[in-house]
Amino acid sequence: MLWLVLSWICLWMQVQNPHSIKYNGTMQGLKYIWRTEGLRGLFKGNGTNCARIVPNSAVKFFSYEQASHGILWLYRQQPGKEDAQLTPLLRLGAGACAGIIAMSATYPMDMVRGRLTVQTEKSPRQYRGIYHALSTVFKEEGPRALYRGWLPSVIGVVPYVGLNFAVYESLKDYLLQTNPFGLVEDNELSVTTRLACGAAAGTIGQTVAYPLDVIRRRMQMVGWKGASSVIVGEGRSKAPLEYTGMVDAFRKTVRYEGFGALYKGLVPNSVKVVPSIAIAFVTYEVVKDVLGVEMRISD
């Protein structure tokens, strides 16, 4: 439940109107949700998120394995590289490909999850559920609306995934080579140490890519009739902004709210994302070991 609540708070902080701010921090957000919507409000968007995360994870892992084999095959076509193995750089490329494919395949679900999460009882348009939200957006705003904000998401996936893998692998290599504080046993790092490496990777990756996530969320709200009470107003007006594209969204966000607006909700997002990334990395490697699969992230 904590993961869901933090997602809820992060989303609201990213898109809320600066002239009608409901809260500025995580604790204020928790109090506001409990006071205005009660226990039920803590689970808003949970069904959509569950429906999205299962196919997203499946597509991501499948795409990663296929991209790894494909990139390695292409790399081995070069003269003198016939016996080459996957390098960290090649794995970064495979991870980026997997992230883009998985995000694109489930993006409409992510888009409606955002709207379901931030809609209130005062919103003119009330989405009754996942299917109703998808069909309503499709009919009223067109099929392109389901992929509004897709470009900043694609651009954000590359540094996000790239830095996650690069930092994780670099930290592990450094620890294995230097063995500070006796962390290495039998030429292996403990689960706790690998979790710490994953947490560091997640912190750096999501901090660098976070502004693109804010822009993505704001672009997803454009065209929604119920967004006027939620998203950023232009100048001193409380009317929602209309963004013509990613660059325009960046420009207007910084102009009317300052550069710091690009990092709204970073703290609750970090509390949510950093441990999940760390656990994902370690779980992936441990499961591969248990199943006896030869290929691992660290190979």
UniProtKB/TrEMBL annotation:
- Topology in membrane: Multi-pass membrane protein
Q: Where in the cell is it found?
A: Mitochondrion inner membrane
Any Gene Ontology CC annotation: mitochondrial inner membrane
Q: Where is the signal peptide?
A: 1-18
Among InterPro entries, the record links this protein to: MCP, MCP_dom_sf, MCP_transmembrane
- Keyword Membrane among UniProt keywords: yes
Question: Which Pfam families does the entry link to?
Answer: Mito_carr
Q: Where are the Solcar repeats?
A: 1-70, 86-174, 189-290
Q: Which UniProt keywords apply?
A: Membrane, Mitochondrion, Mitochondrion inner membrane, Repeat, Signal, Transmembrane, Transmembrane helix, Transport
Family, per entry = Belongs to the mitochondrial carrier (TC 2.A.29) family.
Supply the PANTHER family for this chain. Answer: SOLUTE CARRIER FAMILY 25
The molecule here is called Uncharacterized protein
